[in-house]
Amino acid sequence: MMYIGVDCGTQSTKVVVVDIDGGRILGEASRPHRLEAGEGGRREQAPADWIEAFRGALHDAVARAGIEPQAIRAIGVSGQQHGLVALDAAGEPVHPAKLWCDTETADHNAALVERLGGEAGCLDRLGLVLQTGYTASKLAWLRDARPEAYRRIATLLLPHDYLNFWLTGERVAEAGDASGTGYFDTRARRWREDVLAEIAPELDPERVLPRLIGSREPAGTLRPALARELGLAEGVVVSSGGGDNMLGAIGTGNIRPGLVTLSLGTSGTVCAYSPEPAVADDAQVANFCASHGGWLPLICTMNVTSATTRVRELFGLDLAAFGERLAAAPIGAEGVTVLPFFNGERVPPLPQASGSFLGLTDVNATQANLCRAVVEGATFGLRYGLERLGGLARDASEIRLIGGGAKSAVWRQMVADILGTPVICPAVTDAAALGAAIQAAWCEGGADASLDALCARLVHLDESSRAAPDAERVAAYEAVYARYRRALAEHHGVMA
Ligand SMILES: Nc1ncnc2c1ncn2[C@@H]1O[C@H](COP(=O)(O)OP(=O)(O)O)[C@@H](O)[C@H]1O
Ligand SMILES: O=C(CO)[C@@H](O)[C@H](O)COP(=O)(O)O
User: Which pLDDT tens digit goes with each residue over 92-115?
Assistant: First the structure.
């Protein structure tokens, strides 16, 4: 039985075709997206680009799988979290989607947090503290900055909800991705219409909020005309889908406590499954719901491969040459420290920060050291975040490493040494797409399908990617991390 998983990331859409009976990944493909970046932290994408990338990647993945597309039984969609896809009554976006990494709305977010009663008020009403990047402040910004577009809003969706809408015609949402809107109570798993009313008083919550469905419920079935166009069978089920981090957790087998999934994508994320809502006293921890029931407390940093790519491109290096420079420099990059906040930062909460290269001298200012220092800086940011997640992450036996950066052996070893925990990657290229395919099979399979059994069958680990922490390197990185923390304190006042 064949299933398809789709992951609409920041840089590309990836599609995977899986065969449940054989426990095999049959085909994978991806197509890139354009990102509109502007002054003041603007980061937007046209939802039509996601559809175009979806079509192309679906075509390529099915061709690589060498299967008859009519054999596909269900599709699951994972998407970058938080992006605001506001549709008009005809189902057209009223404005390009403002993305999770857009920091133009930092002032709106600060005002909203205050209006909700500060951090305590946010925790009380939402189960988490609003961060710049969550959907809420994008809506507040649209109201102020683009009133004509705002007036036409008929539905508020997230990127994966929008792809589900395109596939099925249904305007629905599920708890995992809805957690990141900022108008959803993550403990009670329900919309907070009163909070939406504080953000956008003119919008009728009954009308604009999509219908909430359970993680195991279908969003709908493929629209017949689209099924014909894509060469798929009529009646193909589309599962609820979810946020990319939620489906990345499923695709790495992180569906019970004990593991950590760490993503080196455009963003960096660390998350651990919890059967209980984890309302932390630390405002930086996002108490998100999982997309298979339960919760997925998470921290997210905004500058990971976006930052490393920036430095790589400044030097005109391809990925192989960048990897060589990384390996050539010693731990600590001979004293160079990078605070890679090119696009502001979410954890620590510095949405209006900019990046810094520190400690440069005539001797250490080499390509190799600068490449190494930006990768170390991005990884130290994740350690800072992991420390905030507390016991759930600290006690994990293994880190399941995903995202584009996980392809680098040097970076994998660095994660193991900086976090002091063994690391392994899944065999599939995009774990969120695999998680989406697994969720699709779980949804379509009815009562007999078990998520544990599906993960056991389909989540294969790449033994050759294993990296164990080495005591000498762990100690060396401790000193470099202390230097990074001093720089954070000195330049941004981040002490805790
Ligand atoms: N070997 C590598 N070393 C470092 N970065 C890499 C490597 N391979 C891919 N990447 C980077 O990974 C990024 C894409 O990661 P991905 O997880 O697909 O992003 P997203 O899901 O946010 O779209 C790109 O910036 C790419 O340059
Ligand atoms: O904002 C978050 C999580 O809260 C990001 O993790 C986005 O979900 C984007 O993910 P990638 O494109 O980096 O995979």
Answer: 999 999 999 999 999 999 999 999
- What pTM does this model have? 0.97
Query: Cα separation of 338 and 365, whole Å?
Result: 12
For 210, the token pair is: 């999509």
Choose among 465, 457, 445: nearest CA to 25: 457
DSSP string for residues in 20-62: TTTTEEEEEEEEE---EEEGGGEEEE-HHHHHHHHHHHHHHHH
Among the atoms of ligand 1, which is closest to the Cα of residue 11?
A: 23
Q: Are 410 and 473 in contact (CB under 8 A)?
A: no
Say which residue the tokens 């930062």 belong to: 345
Residue 191 makes CB contacts below 8 A (sequence gap 6+) with 178, 183, 184, 185, 205, 209, 212
pLDDT value of residue 39:
87
**Sequence letter at residue 383:** R
Provide ipTM, 2 decimals: 0.98
**Catalytic entry in 177, 244, 417, 430:** 244
Note the pLDDT tens digit of each residue in 180-210. 999 999 999 999 999 999 999 999 999 999 9
The β-bridge relationship of strands 295-301 and 356-358 is: unpaired
Domains of the chain and any CATH numbers: 2-244 (3.30.420.40)
User: Using CA atoms, how far apart are residues 400 and 261, in angstroms rounded to an integer?
Assistant: 5
Cα atoms in the 13 Å half-sphere on the side-chain side of 389? 31
Pairing of strands 42-45, 423-426: unpaired
**Length of the chain (residues):** 496
Active site residue 107: no
Answer for the pair 272, 254: CB distance below 8 angstroms, yes or no.
Answer: yes
Q: Whose CA is nearest to atom 9 of ligand 2?
A: 80
The minimum-distance atom of ligand 2 relative to the CA of 81 is 8
In the reported structure, the alpha carbon of residue 251 is separated from the centroid of ligand 1 by a whole-number distance in angstroms of 18
d(CA 124, CA 188): 11
Q: Is 186 in the pocket of ligand 1 (CB under 6 A)?
A: no
For the stretch 466-485, pLDDT in tens is 999 999 999 999 999 999 99
Q: What is the DSSP code string of 123-158?
A: HHHHSS---BTBHHHHHHHHHHH-HHHHHT--EEE-
